[in-house]
Amino acid sequence: MRTWRTLACIVLVLVVGVSLAANWLTPAGYAKQYREAVAAPPSHQHWLGTDDIGRDRFARLLYGTRISLLLAPAAALLSTLMAALIGGLAGYLGGIWSRAAMAVTDLFLSLPWLFLLITMRALMPLNVAPLVSVLVTFLLLGLLGWSSAARVLCSSATTLRNSDFVRQAKASGIQGSRLFWIHVLPNLKPVLHAQFWISIPVFILSEANLGILGLGVAEPLPSWGSLLKELEGMVSVGDEPWKFVPLILLIIVVTSFQLALSNPDEVAA
Amino acid sequence: MLGRKLARHGLGIIATALLGGFLAATMVRLAPGFNTDEAQLDPRLNSASVQALKQARADQNNIFRFYVHAMSRAWRGDLGVSLSLGQPASDLLRQRVPLTLRLVGMGLLLSWSAVMAFALSAARLRISVYDGLATVLSGTLLCVPAAVLALLSVLWNVPGALAIGLIVFPRDYRYTRNLLAKAYSLPHVLAARAKGLGEVRILFWHVLPLAAPQILAVAGVSVSLALGAAIPVEALCGLAGVGQLAWQAALSRDLPLLVNITILVTLVTLLANSGADLVGSMWRGQS
Fold first, then answer.
1. Chain B partners within 8 Å of A107 (Cβ)
2. How many domains is chain A partitioned into structurally?
3. pLDDT of B19-72, one tens digit each?
4. Do the Cβ atoms of B22 and A115 come closer than 8 Å?
5. Residue A265 — pLDDT band, cuts 50, 70, 90?
6. B16 and A107: CB-CB below 8 Å?
7. Distance from B163 to chain A by nearest Cα, in Å?
8. Residue A56's beta-bridge partner residues?
């Protein structure tokens, strides 16, 4: 299992590295149109061919990978922070705060994730600049993805609140926010850490789903969602198999995340 | 005892659905562009008519009044009119709910048949190659976006229910396989096997009764997963169900329709989870 985890980490580092080098590998950029080669098959000039309006697919894949792989962790960070604040504080304060926070958490958990995403996305203006659409999409993922982690954190914080060392700290006169920030929150770090890494592949897949449904990153900016939307117009798999490259890369990246995060003990069991 | 439990569950469901409706209405009220009404731009309207339209909008400025008004109308069966489709929301939902229920039901049936077949054989046989293959299959499906599976189902002309089944399968398989494997490794099951008890008897008398409450809980959660999966499947396969309606409402920012769908989906999900919870606790009480 250790070998697989190492391999997964290497793959992730490679993909991130190559996507960060997109400016050097494809200097023409993701939006340049090659009008003489519209919907062209793969060639020396265009490794993955060009799309329906003559843009280089390989360049778009690199830039799209960069957007998804850089912003998914940012969204994961936001959702983890929100989970820490909502779940951690609810568990630490207990009583009515805990019940209220868990009622809202239950409500979020009772709605299917994709349904929640498209509903909330619909509340934002849809016809916005591409850069704004990227921010809105990933901000939404970050703002909505905290609920399951908040539940775990609330339960952990409740256990911590009743633990000996917190009681001792209270007896020593440490109260309120200082107790939370210095004694409770640092002890939630392992859960927060796990939540952060688990959220990244979930958010990558969610962005892809939103993109295919036309509610994700707006054109001309590429993302995995908008690249996979090209599959919509296909008639048969054998016609243009190179269109599946973004999907294969997405599967490799998400699988690598899952392998890198997997618990060796659990796998062995 | 059971009556009290049912009442508590029922109250919880109603409270959560009302809270969901209130949050959805609040979001709708705060959404950018809520105060804009294209009708006010109609050049044929005189200033008094425009003023009347503005006044009607202003009445909805108070979120609580807006919500209470919407709820009292809903109580009378009036769910409002869809802004994008121009039809009563209740009619739209009535037309589309049966298809979604059929699709989700079939998807769940297919998914759970595969889950139980794979999980039982993986937990029972304990052949590492077989277990590995099932894990790789579910792991790969887990890494494919639901919308891509929906697109592939269109490409390969596969029924939408199968796409929903494939989306739900990997999420349920992992938990169910672990639960069954854990039950099979318990000492009393090993002892029963050592004494020569038949496999069918071991399964139905010793393994399933232990794992059933947790498996039922997973089944309850899978309803929510299947409802979520219905959105891309219906939207991309051109199936006129509630999932497609939700997608169309989102694309056209038909917020009143979205509020109604939110409440409906919340209710269905909560009912499924509570049902699974109740059956699970009754099972525990019996065994």
1. 16, 19-20, 23, 266
2. 1
3. 777 777 777 767 766 666 666 677 777 888 877 777 766 666 666 777 777 778
4. no
5. low
6. yes
7. 14
8. A50
pLDDT digits (tens, 9 = 90+) for A109-123: 878 888 888 888 887
pLDDT of A172-194, one tens digit each? Answer: 888 878 888 888 888 888 889 98
φ/ψ (deg, to 5) at B268: -60, -45
Q: Is A110 on the interface with B (CB under 8 A)?
A: yes
- pLDDT, tens digit (0-9, with 9 covering 90-100), for A237-260: 777 889 899 999 999 999 999 888
Q: Where are the alpha helices (DSSP H) in chain A?
A: 2-20, 22-25, 57-83, 89-93, 95-110, 113-123, 130-144, 147-161, 164-171, 176-179, 189-212, 224-228, 245-261, 264-268
Q: Which domain holds residue A161?
A: 2-268
E strands, chain B, where?
none
A vs B: CB pairs below 8 A: 133
Q: What span, in angstroms and rounded, lies between the C-alpha atoms of A90 and A106? A: 14
Whether the pLDDT of residue B197 is over 60: the answer is yes
Tell me whether A261 touches chain B (CB under 8 Å): no
Do the Cβ atoms of B147 and A209 come within 8 Å? yes
Cα–chain-centroid distance for residue A173?
41
Of A119, A201, A212, the CB nearest to B232: A212
Q: What is the pLDDT of residue A269?
A: 38
State the residue for tokens 């996979």. A228
**B81, β-bridge pairs:** B88
The alpha carbon of residue B59 is apart from the nearest alpha carbon of chain A, in Å, by 20
Interchain contact A73–B (C-beta under 8 A): no
Q: Which pLDDT belongs to residue A268? A: 41
- CA dihedral of residues A61, A62, A66, A67 (deg, nearest 10): -40
> What is the value of pTM for the model shown?
0.87
- Which of these, A100, A102, A184, A110, lies nearest to A150 by C-alpha position? A102
Give the whole-angstrom CA distance, residue B60 versus residue B67. 9
CATH code of residue A163: 1.10.3720.10
**b/e per residue B20-43 (b: at least 16 CB within 10 A):** bbbbbbebbbebeebeeeeeeeee
